[in-house]
């Protein structure tokens, strides 16, 4: 693993078509901008893990004789669509299969009135 230190607005180039820009740092979080060709999937690690577990569950339920056929099937099901920011709270839990920690925290705040 290559570990680099970058300041805001500094860039990292990967190959000819991928550029990662550090947009902002805040506390322990970092906001990144990623420029990549449309045919290169860019997923956060937790979404990739959720997708992989979904594909594994789907594989366990359906008996597919050829692993290569199954891999091609899961790759062809990936779609990228733009979701309006106002719809993210309703779309993301369906993608992850669970409400997630932020949703639980916000629900707790709403009930306690904090």
UniProtKB/TrEMBL annotation:
Q: Where is this region: Disordered?
A: 58-114
UniProt keyword Cytoplasm present: yes
**GO molecular function, a single term:** mRNA 5'-UTR binding
Primary location group: cytoplasm
- Can you tell me where the transmembrane regions are? none
The Gene Ontology biological process annotation of the record reads: bacterial-type flagellum organization; mRNA catabolic process; negative regulation of translational initiation; regulation of bacterial-type flagellum assembly; regulation of carbohydrate metabolic process
Q: Name one GO cellular component term.
A: cytosol
| HAMAP family assigned to the protein according to its UniProt record, in alphabetical order | CsrA
Under which name does UniProt file this protein? Translational regulator CsrA
Q: Which organism is it from?
A: Botrimarina mediterranea
Its encoding gene is what? csrA_2
